[in-house]
């Protein structure tokens, strides 16, 4: 526990500091507050060496990709298939945005301007979610929407070992159409997409066909558009991704942990191909589950 406090202190120093620190059992973290004494505790390396074998071999994956590429959809499906928690930063942020608090209003302003959130804000929100998971005994994870910057990557590397980073890719023009077609039911919160995408490939490349995901009649008159799903904001977010998040891809590629995966169609076409792509990286006990 004392060594975990030291790890938490180093984590927040990497990410710019915050009033929250992190504990870790190898794959989940817990928010806590530490006094000045934390700086006098054992080094992170000593804490890291005490982790159990099971915690080091637990499935710990990250989904990367441009906004709108489908990280949440496929990460959620894969997490459910493999029986591990799906931790989606986008959902956590949107929940905070719905709160009429100073923090929620600040996040709303940043999102509407198409800006990435500061590391300290992201880490504080993530801490709240992971604290709940720790208390519930969660093991393993599929992270979606985190890390987004090189400093966040380095922070995550200090406290756990990522096994695989799945990088979803999709053409920019298709991404823009897909994002602008997103809708949310104000009643039940379910996500839909009204875009009907059918484009030919560049220079004779493959066709990309993504039919709309339309709501049932009970939701049809309750659809809302996210405030940040305008073309100008979407393009700003894609530019920011190229600037801030490409170094994240490069970092994991250099470690031999990055798996590029091109999305070439809707869910029915993409899902089985995704399962085939990740099977070589699954723990032996998960292979039979993924094959089902």
Description:
The chain is α/β, with parallel strands linked by helices and 292 residues long. It has a single domain (2-291), classed as P-loop containing nucleotide triphosphate hydrolases (Rossmann fold). 48% of the residues lie in helices and 16% in strands. It contains 13 helices and twelve strands. The chain has helices at residues 2-14, 44-49, 53-57, 71-82, 89-97, 102-112, 119-135, 150-159, 172-180, 217-220, 231-254, 267-278, 284-291, and strands at 21-24, 29-32, 60-65, 86-88, 141-144, 164-169, 182-185, 191-193, 197-199, 208-210, 223-224, 258-262. Strands 4-5-3-6-12 form a five-stranded parallel beta sheet, with helices on both faces. β9 (197-199) and β10 (208-210) form a beta hairpin. α5 crosses α7. The protein is globular, with a radius of gyration of 20 Å. It starts with a helix and ends with a helix. 30% of the residues are buried. Residues 1-57 have low confidence and may be disordered.
